[in-house]
Amino acid sequence: MPSNLKYKASLKNARLDRITTDIGSSGLLRIYSGTQPASPDASLSGNTLLAELALSSTFAAGAASGVLTANSITADSSADNTGTAAWFTLTTSGGTRQVDGSVGTSGSDLNLNTTSIVSGAQVSVSSLTITAGN
Amino acid sequence: MTKDTAKKTSIAATGVALAPGLAAPAAGLATGKYSITFESAVGENDGLFVRDEKGDLVLDNGEPIPAESEHLMVKLVYPGGYTKNHQAATPEDLVSKVVGVLRGRYGVPSEIKIAALPKQLAAGAAIEVEV
Description:
heterodimer; A: five-stranded mixed sheet; B: two-stranded antiparallel ribbon; 1 helix; 9% helix
């Protein structure tokens, strides 16, 4: 019999809210080129920081119905480097990575209109939600 | 039950990367001299590790870290208190990034002169600019 694991709604919300807790105050969303590390616990290697966006002082309001919705994210008005966006990370204000995800133009965790980031240009993220699994 | 119904946690985010010059500046900056200070300069992987009694970075179990940081993350404090981290290996790496912020965020249209550049990436240092 395959797995059929299910979590109580309040437990799913609590797990999502832990993300907000661990990001802490005034976290960051960073977009990188290069190969995405195996996990947020793995080192950056050969990755170029393309853009850094500021999360709200509180990353998200409390999760509801298994969905965590980020508060507003401030655009980076001047991308640091030109390159192809491949992945992003949500970090603490000190830069410790908590959540990593892919970047693309469709079907990725973060979908941009283009993955071609140009130095000096604006990069914005208009919405971000994290939905709990079962 | 004939199939696995497990659903993974997922992220859905959307955004826009513009071409240069298409966004309005977020702040203004009068002509003059400004000091852009280094609030901190830490290895880009430092947050993953702990320091041992000698101050060296190690894994939680005390083993050496698997990869040294290739760059520092330098947190600069711009006029008005705006802060931004930049990935850099040398002070020279910061020049184009600082100019980009002064143009993109502050809308400085004129020449930007780097009057002084520190020799090292270290907290407390500063880049002096004239706009």
